[in-house]
Amino acid sequence: MTEKTTMTTQYLSEININIYTPSKRLGLMHHRSNCNINAGTSMQDVDVYSNKSNAKEEEMYDDENDPKTQFARNLVTPGTTISKEGEYLKGHGTFHHQGSLIASVSGVVDKVDKLVSVRAFHSRYQGEIGDIIVGRITQVAAKRWKVDCNARQDYILMLTAINLPGGIQRRRTSSDELQMRNFFVENDLIYAEVQAINGDGSVALHTRNQRYGKLMNGVLVSVPPALIKRSKQHAHTLDCGVDIILGVNGYIWIADSAQQQAQTQLIQRHEKDSYDQPLFVPPQVKQVSRESRQKIARVRNAIHILHTHYMLIHTRSIMEIYNMTLNMPLTDMLTPNKARQIITAVHTNIQERMGFKDDNEENDTDMISQFNHDTEMND
After folding, report:
1. Which residues partner with 100 through β-bridges?
2. Contact 272, 166 (CB under 8 A)
3. How far apart (Å, rounded) are the C-alpha atoms in residues 296 and 284?
4. Residue 371 has pLDDT above 70, yes or no
5. Helices and strands (H and E) in the chain: how many
6. pLDDT on residue 280
7. What's the N-to-C CA distance of the chain in angstroms?
8. Separation CA 298–CA 301 (nearest Å)
9. pLDDT band at residue 274, thresholds of 50, 70 and 90?
10. How far is Cα 94 from Cα 119, in angstroms, rounded to an integer?
């Protein structure tokens, strides 16, 4: 009796008890179904099999957690069957057809509990709290402005969410509501931040900061929001003397740096003296020199080239194209052949900075030399 008790205790001490999640139990059952363990199988054989099973499980679940694998599995095109009808709720980018849930756009599948939607590659901007955006006033309503932000619906800028002239901190009154058109009117461009996302889907903006407000005397460029990365700073002054605001919503503002500084000083003086009167900007302040307009146009063309070739837009890529095309006429930058040569040269410079060497490096270098030679000949 003592021997049997000792053997049983020794046998039980060699058994490892593991707690598995339902998804892991599914994989474990699959492995067990393919293995027949006889009564005479030694504990050593069981341990070897258990280790193999655990290794397979870890490999399987590591593959599931791989972002590339997840992205590839969730990638759908129009007409792809996502699931059977009734398993999930229909969201944006999907529709029901013959008992199945079908994708209507190309993109990535998003699942939130039982709600399934498809996020399209070329979709409209979806605001997140803290986003820096450039928008256009579309309507002046009761105690609010409606702003076009390249989204599915207009965003809301409340009267209480703006910075009063002179930085005065007080409650808004009926007189402030009567003077709303002295602040912003239809077609005004503004620089703002996403303040909140309401339960009904509406998005609230605010300009309660000295750096936010109305934008004047510049150029607005629209690109897909996917080309603008969220960063700590979206307002930059380029080395060429051009101010640029990279709105997360895909709207980019370009203006002359010196003119913007003079205009800001004028606005600040107006807010201190007579904010209840409409702002009048003298012609000498609005004036932008020919050289500055050419710089703005070159920056705009650089952004257009990056946009058409679907490359990320940031200050480094813009200035790289700007410096590369200083000897090129502005109109030639937009020709397809020149644009392709510029983009290829940018790719080569990026590879050199990152330390990559391509088999066609010599061909790329010859092409860049030919590109510079053609530019000099055209001049």
Report:
1. 84, 97
2. yes
3. 19
4. no
5. 12, 17
6. 60
7. 105
8. 5
9. low
10. 10
The single residue listed with the structure tokens 């257009």 is 304
Mean pLDDT, residues 284-305: 87
- Both tokens of residue 172? 């808004």
Locate 332 and state its tokens: 């030639």
Pairwise CA distance, residues 264 & 157, whole Å:
22
- Higher-scoring residue by pLDDT: 91, 55: 91
Q: Strand, helix or coil at 257? A: helix
Q: Which residues contact 111 (CB under 8 A, 6 or more apart)?
A: 88
Length of the chain: 379
Contact 235, 211 (CB under 8 A): yes
- CA-to-CA distance for 93 and 102, rounded, in angstroms? 9
Q: Are 85 and 71 in contact (CB under 8 A)?
A: no
Residue linked to tokens 């679940």:
61
Burial of 217 by CB count in 10 Å (0-12 exposed, 13-18 middle, 19+ buried)? middle
Is pLDDT at 111 greater than 80 in this prediction?
yes
Residue 35 has pLDDT above 50, yes or no: no
